[in-house]
Amino acid sequence: MEKLINEFSLGLFFWQALIFIGLLLLLRKFAWKPILKAVNDREGQIRESLELADKTKAEMKQLQAQNESLLKEAKAERDQLIKEASETAKRIVVEPKDEAKAQHDQIVADAQRVILAEKAAAITELKTTVASLSLEIAEKVIKGELASDDKQKALAEKLAEDITLN
After folding, report:
1. Angle at the Cα of 10 (from 9 to 11), degrees rounded to 5?
2. In a domain, 114, yes or no
3. Is residue 135, in this structure, part of any structural domain at all?
4. How far, in Å, CA of 152 to CA of 145, rounded?
């Protein structure tokens, strides 16, 4: 091996250079263009894949934004429906209570009117009865007082004096 390294042969160098240049020319003519075409095609495919990936990424962001907006709308609609349902439930509970209270108040007011009417009728009847009894008592007292002629004369004179004094 030392022999190869120490000896330089011009002939061997020439044939090796000639073979190398021939190989380069053959490669250039038959292999270089297809290799460059394959590399360029691969580069184009990679570029297209990157562009597609970027487009897909942008579309995903847009879809995600749309999903978020749809989710917000759905939440808002859900909240609105819950609010409406709650208000309806309250209304369903409150309206019968109010109607029952109104009916109760009406019944109480009617009962109070009936009671007042009955009370007024009872008072009127009581007054009539008291007046009738008072008249009967007064009649009996006056009959007892005016049973004698002397008492009648004394009463008449007294009434006459009261009349002239006024």
Report:
1. 95
2. yes
3. yes
4. 8
Residue 2, number of CB atoms within 10 A of its CB: 6
> 96-134: per-residue pLDDT in tens?
888 888 888 999 999 999 999 888 888 998 888 888 888
pLDDT in the model for residue 101: 87
DSSP-derived secondary structure letter, 146 = T
* Within-domain flag for 78: yes
> CA 132, 135, 138, 142: dihedral to nearest 10 degrees?
-140
145 near 151, Cβ under 8 Å? yes
Residue pair 133/123 in contact by the 8 Å Cβ criterion: no
Contact criterion met (CB below 8 Å) for 36 and 43? no
**What percent of the chain is helix, strand and coil (3-state, nearest 5)?**
95, 0, 5
For residue 101 the two structure tokens come to 């209270």
Prediction pTM value: 0.39
Q: Is 31 among the domain residues?
A: no
Which DSSP letter does residue 8 get?
A: -
Contact 147, 155 (CB under 8 A): no
Q: Give the integer Cα–Cα distance in Å for 13 and 21.
A: 12
